[in-house]
Amino acid sequence: MGRPARLKAASPREQHRERLRALTRESILRSAEAVLLRDGLDALTLDAIAAELGLTKQGLYYHYPSKEVLLAELALQEWTAAADATHAATKAAATAADALEALVRSYVARYAQRLPMFRLATQGSLLSPQAARLARQQLDAIRPLNDLMYGPTERKLRAAQRAGRADAALDPRRLAFIAHTSAMGLLTMQLMVSSVDDPLRHPPKALVDELCRTLRSAVGGPG
């Protein structure tokens, strides 16, 4: 019996095609997030993402036609994850005041050590005209997330109003929105000073604590 034929080694081109087939959009997004958190939004280029994956930039075009499309999907994925996390935290809260505090604390905690991701999620549409167009197209996907983000808090506030434990003049949905945007404002201030090594006069924890006390007092909850 003759010697078995030696298996032919895959050519570099075939190896590259195999890697492309094995590559998924999710792995690209994970690599993009790794680059973002390590090097910042300004350094998040297709070349950097490709290097993280061990591919050429041309390989990414198989899945994403442009950097803006990739970042828009990453931002939408982050908005969805943030809404899910906030929903879980506020749904588990015992009272309306607890829900307002949980909304703020869960959102701030998500980004306290991930400010570049916060910047992408909230300011990514400012990167280019194409990014702005994509952001407008994403609104239909983002709007349903509002109910995840604000729904449990709104329902707890309405229940508190019916029970006479909260001011009937309050608008529950609006107050939940204010809690969220206030948390975003605190993170934006941290983001602004993080790049110039000029810390805020007030520690971030103290600012969050003060915001939560203010929100709790607005609905009659203990500070």
What is the topology?
Elements: H1 12-22, H2 25-39, H3 46-53, H4 57-60, H5 67-91, H6 96-111, H7 115-123, H8 129-142, H9 145-162, H10 172-194, H11 204-218
Helix pairs in contact: 2-3, 5-6, 5-7, 5-8, 5-9, 6-9, 6-10, 6-11, 7-10, 9-10, 10-11
Structural class: mainly alpha
Our estimate of the beta-strand percent is: under 5%
Described by its quaternary structure, the protein is single chain
- Helix-strand topology string: HHHHHHHHHHH
Let me know the largest β-sheet: none
- Overall spatial form: elongated
Rounded radius of gyration (Å): 23 Å
Mean pLDDT: 86
**Tally of alpha and pi helices:** 11
Poorly predicted tracts of residues: 1-7
In whole angstroms, the N-to-C terminal distance is: 87 Å
Query: Percent helix among the residues?
Result: over 70%
Care to count the β-strands?
0
Summarize the structure.
By secondary structure, the chain is mainly alpha-helical. It has helices spanning 12-22, 25-39, 46-53, 57-60, 67-91, 96-111, 115-123, 129-142, 145-162, 172-194, 204-218.
What does this structure look like?
- With 223 residues, the chain is mostly helical.
- Helix content is 71%, strand content 0%.
- The chain has helices at residues 12-22, 25-39, 46-53, 57-60, 67-91, 96-111, 115-123, 129-142, 145-162, 172-194, 204-218.
- Helix 2 (25-39) crosses helix 3 (46-53), helix 5 (67-91) packs antiparallel against helix 6 and helix 10 packs antiparallel against helix 11.
